Amino acid sequence: MTNSANHHRLRFLLILGTLSATGPLSIDLYLPALPQMVSQFHTTTAMMQLSITACLLGLAVGQLISGPLSDHYGRRMPLFAGFIVFGLASLAIAFTHSVSLLIGLRFIQGLAGAAGQVLSRAVARDLFSGKALTQFYALLNSVNGLFPIIAPIIGGYMIKFVPWTGIFILLGAIGLLLAGLILLGIPETLKPEHRLTGPVFQSFLSFGTLLKQPGFFGELLITGVVYGSLFSYIAASTFIYQQLFHLSAQSFSLIYALNGLGIVIGSALPGRLTGVSTYRQLISGLGFCIVDSVALLLGAYLQWRLVTIATLIFLLVIGVGLLLTLTTAIIMGKTSENAGGASALIGLSQNAFGGISSPLVGLFGTSSLAPMAGLVLVYNLIAGGVAYHIHHQNR
C-alpha cells in the first residue's frame, strides 16, 4: 500500500473506532461524577445506576432499528442522523434537574448513539471477510478500547473544575462533531445492488433467518454474558474503588483507565494469534476468565488488598477484550447481505446483559466486592458451557 493509502486507512479506522465507542463515551466519561450526581439529585445509588441501564437499553433497542434500516438504505445516513440526535440529547441532559427526566434522556441518548456501535461493525463486514475481518475487528476494538482509558481521566479531572453538567455538554459537542466527520470521512460501503429490497419491514425479518443458523443464538448468548461481566465491573467500580478502598475520584479514574488499557491489549490479541482457530481461542479465553473470577470472588471474602484485587480485575478485562473481539468476528463472519441485522443482534445481546447487570450489582449492595465478583463468575460459567457445547456440536 502507498503512504497515501495507509494514511487514508488509518483515518478511516480512527473515525470508525470513535463512532463505535458510543458506549464508553456515554458511560465512562461520567462514571467519576456518579457520587456527585447522587448527592445533587437527592436520590439513591441504585436510582442513579438506572441512568446507566437506560442508556444501555437505548443502545440495545436502537441497534435493532438502525441495523436493519442500514441493510435497506445504506450505512451512511443512519449514522449521520444517529449522531445528530445523540449530540442534542446529551446537551438536553446537561440542563435537566429531574432524575426521571435524566433517565429518559439517557435512553434517547443510547437509542441514537446505537447507530455508531451497530454500523461500525456492519461497515467492517462490508469491506472484509475471514481472517482479515478478525484482524480488522481486533484493530477496531483496540481503538474503541482507548476510550475507557481517556474518558474516566477526562471525567475525573473535569469534575474538579466544573459540575457534572459540563461532562454532558462535552458529550453533546462530541456527538455533533462526529456527525460532521461522518459526512466528510465515511464513504457509503453498502452498494445499492447489495442492499435488501422490498418493503422496509422485510429488513427486520432478517433476524429470524439469522437466528436459524446453527450455533448463532448460542454465540449471541456468549457475547452478551461476556459484555454483562464487563458492565458488572463498570457499574460497581466507582463505588468499590472510591468507597470500599477510599480512592479519590482522580485516583479512581487513573486505575479505571489502566483497565481500559487491558481491554486494548485483549482486543489486539486475536489479530496476532492467526495460527489458532477462533473457537480454540474463545474456549481458552473463557477458561482464563473463569479462573480469574473465582480468584476475585475468593479475594472479596478474604478481603485482599487493593493491589491484588486491581491486578485480578486488570487480567479480567484483558480476557473480556479478547472474547468480545472473537465473538464479534465469529458472528459477523456468518453474514453477507444482512450484516446490519447481525450486528444489531450482537448489540441487543450485549447491551441487554449490560443493562440488567448494573441494577443487579446495585441490588446486592456496593459495600463489598462479592456481588460483582459473583455475577462475573456466573456469566463466565454460562459462556464457557455454551461455547463448549457449540464447539463439540461442530466437531
TrEMBL record:
GO terms for biological process: xenobiotic detoxification by transmembrane export across the plasma membrane. PROSITE patterns: MFS, SUGAR_TRANSPORT_1. The keyword Membrane applies. It is found in: Cell membrane. The chain crosses the membrane at residues 12-34, 46-65, 77-95, 136-159, 165-186, 220-241, 253-270, 282-302, 308-332, 370-390. It is a multi-pass membrane protein. Its main location: membrane. InterPro entries: Efflux_drug-R_Bcr/CmlA, MFS, MFS_dom, MFS_trans_sf, Sugar_transporter_CS. Residues 12-395 form the Major facilitator superfamily (MFS) profile domain. One of its GO terms (cellular component) is plasma membrane. This is Bcr/CflA family efflux transporter. It comes from Secundilactobacillus collinoides (Lactobacillus collinoides).
